[in-house]
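Support request from a user on the community tier.

User writes: "When I paste my structure tokens into the form, the page sometimes reloads and wipes my input. The last time it worked, I copied everything first. Here is what I submitted, just in case something in the input itself triggers the reload:"
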């Protein structure tokens, strides 16, 4: 169990899974830059995160709910947590809680909003699972599933919190704390996904990426080219 002062941003799990270097630039070096994708995502989350609670028959919706998980050592803000009223026959399933001022039992259901579309890797699923693990710890309840709402399709994608997804999320949280304790920024490794990263001009992956020998291949090529130009031997 982590102390509250040692909690790291839950959103960092998605950054870490996308790229260790991106995570370190943001969370260790405190660097940030916007591009069109991050701006659209920020605007979407600002709209969703307006703290409020609304109710309709059988569902209570809480927006901008602050959450934390001492076991994983993370904290953050959930876009939306729905509380679905539980049928009387499901009262003993361990998936429902009492809510102040509300009759009956209610099952928490996290919903994360994303600007794009479902991704090839589990970047979004891990972030949502971490939210579920935080809610489970806070409410002492089991949460079997949640949803990702994508702005492009305007539809929800159901996410089952399987044993494999939970284990991956827990492992990434541990890795994040180890990297944070080491305070080291991993070297750049260029990949196609770098072009969509808002930190590409800070990271400079094409220049600074490493080779198999551990040498910065991009820098080595640049210096070699610059040296030839200075010597007037370019093209020999």
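"...and here is what came back when it finally went through:"
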């Amino acid at each position: 169990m982590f102390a509250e002062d040692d909690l790291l941003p839950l959103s960092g799990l998605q950054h870490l899974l996308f790229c260790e270097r991106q995570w370190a630039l943001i969370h260790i070096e405190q660097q940030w830059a916007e591009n069109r994708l991050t701006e659209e995502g920020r605007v979407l989350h600002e709209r969703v995160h307006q703290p409020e609670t609304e109710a309709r028959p059988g569902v209570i919706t809480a927006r901008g709910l602050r959450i934390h998980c001492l076991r994983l050592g993370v904290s953050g803000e959930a876009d939306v947590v729905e509380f679905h009223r539980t049928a009387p026959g499901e009262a003993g399933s361990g998936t429902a809680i009492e809510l102040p001022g509300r009759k009956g039992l209610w099952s928490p259901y996290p919903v994360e909003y994303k600007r794009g579309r479902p991704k090839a890797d589990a970047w979004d699923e891990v972030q949502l699972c971490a939210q579920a693990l935080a809610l489970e710890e806070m409410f002492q309840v089991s949460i079997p599933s949640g949803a990702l709402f994508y702005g492009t399709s305007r539809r929800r994608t159901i996410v089952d919190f399987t044993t494999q997804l939970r284990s991956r999320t827990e492992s990434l949280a541990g890795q994040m704390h180890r990297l944070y304790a080491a305070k080291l920024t991993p070297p750049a490794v260029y990949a196609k996904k770098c072009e969509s990263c808002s930190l590409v001009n800070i990271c400079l992956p094409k220049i600074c990426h490493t080779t198999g020998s551990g040498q910065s291949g991009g820098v080595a090529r640049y210096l070699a080219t610059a040296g030839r130009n200075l010597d007037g031997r370019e093209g020999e």
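Agent notes: The reload is a front-end session timeout and is unrelated to the input. The chain is about 35% helix and 20% strand. Residues 163-182 form the longest helix (20 residues). Escalated to web team.
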